[in-house]
Amino acid sequence: MTSEAGAKQPSEIDPIISSSVPEKGALEDKTGHQYQQGCLTQGCHARLKETRWIHGPISVGGCRVCHQAEGKPEEHHFKLTRSKEELCLFCHPRSAKHKSVHEPYGKLDCSACHNPHGGDNKSFLLARNAGELCAKCHQKHKVAYPHAPVEAGDCLACHAAHQSNQDHLLLREDKQLCLGCHRSLRDLLKGEAPVHQALVQGCLFCHSAHGGDFPAMVSHQSRALCQNCHQNVTDGLTSARSVHGAVDDEKACMRCHAPHTSVFDRLLRDPPAELCIGCHDCEIALPSGRKIGNIHEQISTAASVHGPVKEKNCLPCHFPHSSPNVSLLRGEYPENLYSQFTESTYDLCFHCHDRRLVTDERSTRFGFRNGDRNLHRVHVYREKGRACGICHEPHASKLVKLLRESVSFGPEGWQLPINFVKTETGGSCTTACHKKYSYDKVNPPAAPAQGEGHGEEGKPR
To answer: Cβ atoms within 10 A of the Cβ of 201, count?
Structure first.
C-alpha cells in the first residue's frame, strides 16, 4: 500500500540514508518504548514521512510490521521481524513462478530495485524512472534510431518488472506487443491481404527491439536484410549486365515492396505499372551517360502504345531486379543502332513477334512491305542491320506503329529526323540514312537501285 504525502515537498536526502541520521533535538526519543510512534513523529526518522511516496506501514507509523527491537531499549538495536526473503512476501505474496523471472525478484532481493520505506520516485524505485534503474544493470547502447519507449526510459511499456510467461519478461507475445502501439499496421493485418513470411515469424526477425543504426530499427541495411532470405534475387546482382537503380539506392527493396503486407502480388506497394511509372515520370540520367526518357509523358501523349505497356505490365520485357542483358531486358537485344542479324540477337522481340517478320523475304502477311517485298527484312536482315529501336519506340509513340519522330544518333545525341508519312496503302520516310523512299502494298514503286538506300536484300549498303 502506498500514499502520497499531500502538500509536503520531497526530501532532498535519500530516505534510507536519512533513516540513520538523527535529527537535532530528538536524541532523547531513542529510549522511548513506543517505537512505532517515536520513530516517525518527533524521533530520529521523521524524514521518512516527508517523501512523495510512502510505504503503507510507514504512513500509519507501523514500524513494528518490519522492525523488532532486541536487547535493551537504550541500545537502540532492531532486527527484521522476518527474514529478508520472507519480509516483503508477507504483504506482497508472489504468484506461481513464470517462464521468465527478473533475477532480483527470483532471489527475493526487493531492495535491489526498491526503497523499503518509500521515496520520491513511484513504486519506491531507487532511480527516477524504470529506464534509469534498468540501466544500472543493463547497459544502454547509443544507436542512431532508438525505440521510442527506450529513449523515454519507459522499459515497463514492454517488459514486466518481476516475471512473465513470455521470453525476456515481455508483457505479451512479441508481435502482439508491437501491434499494441503500431495500430495502423494492426489494422492492415486484419484484412485478407498476403503477409510477409518474415512477419509471421515475429517482428524481431527483421527489427532490433531497443533500437539500431538503420531506419525503422531494422537489424541490417535494407538490401542486406532482405538478402538473408531472398538470396536468389541478390545472387545475380554482382555479375549482372544491368541492375535496377532502385535496388542500389538507400531504400533498396523497400522502394517497390511493402515490408509487412500488401494487396498486390509479391508485396508490391502499388500495381506493377503504376509502381514503375512512379519513378519513370521524368528523365533519368544513368552512370553510363545514357538517359532514360520520361516514359510517363510518352504514354500520356501517345497515339500508339506497346502491347505490354497498354496492359500495364512491364514484366514481359523487363526483369525487375537485374538482367544479363542491357536495360533489364528479359532477352537479348542489340545495344547499338546497327548489328549483324541473328535470331538470337533479337531474342527479346521474338518472345512475342513472329520471326517471319524478319526472316521471310516475300510475304503479304505483314504491313510494312512494298508489294510482297518484306521491308523489315530489308532493314534488319543484313550485316549492318538496323536495330528495331532505330525506327520504333519501345514503349509509346505519337505516331502509328510505335514509329519514332527522330532517333538519337552519335556521341552528342543528335536527333536524326525520320520524317515518316503514312498513306492509305503504304507510306514514306526521309532520313539522313537515305533519300525519300516510298512503299505501297497495292501499287509498289520500283525498288532502289543496288547501292542506293536499302541495297539488295541481304547485302550491306
So the answer is: 11
Give the residue ranges of the chain where pLDDT is below 50: 1-33, 36, 450-451, 453-461
Closest CA to 171 of 186, 187, 185, 160: 160
What's the rounded Cα separation, in Å, for the pair 430 and 436?
4
- Using CA atoms, how far apart are residues 43 and 23, in angstroms rounded to an integer? 8
Compute the distance between CA of residue 61 and CA of residue 84 in angstroms, rounded to an integer. Answer: 20
Could you tell me where the beta strands, DSSP code E, fall in 56-101?
67-70, 77-80, 100-101
What is the chain's Cα-based Rg?
40
Instruction: Report d(CA 419, CA 432) in Å as an integer.
Output: 10
3-state secondary structure 207-221: ECCCEECCHHHECCC
DSSP string, 279-299: HSSS-EE-TTS-EE--HHHHH
Q: Give the separation between CA 225 and CA 218, rounded to whole angstroms.
A: 8
Q: 119 phi and psi, to 5 degrees?
A: 155, 180
Q: How far apart are CA 44 and CA 28, in angstroms?
A: 9
Residue 211, pLDDT score: 93
Handedness of CA 46, 51, 54, 59 (dihedral sign): positive
Counts for the chain of helices (H) and strands (E), in that order = 19, 24
Contact 141, 42 (CB under 8 A): no
pTM: 0.74
| 293 grid coordinates | 526518357
Q: Rounded to an integer, what is the distance from CA 317 to the centroid of its chain? A: 27
Contact between 258 and 268 under an 8 Å Cβ cutoff? The reply is yes
Distance CA 366, CA 371 (A): 11
CA distance between the termini of the chain: 101
CA distance 373 to 441: 9
Q: How far apart are CA 331 and CA 323, in angstroms?
A: 9
Rounded CA separation 384/373 (Å):
19
Contact 97, 163 (CB under 8 A): yes
Contact predicate 59/124, CB 8 Å = no
Q: Which pLDDT score, from 0 to 100, does residue 410 have?
A: 75
Instruction: Name the E strands within 152-290.
Output: 163-164, 211-212, 242-243, 284-285
Cβ atoms of 180 and 172 within 8 Å: the answer is yes
Do residues 55 and 2 touch, judged by C-beta distance below 8 A? Answer: yes
H/E segment holding residue 438:
strand 437-440
pLDDT of residue 145: 94
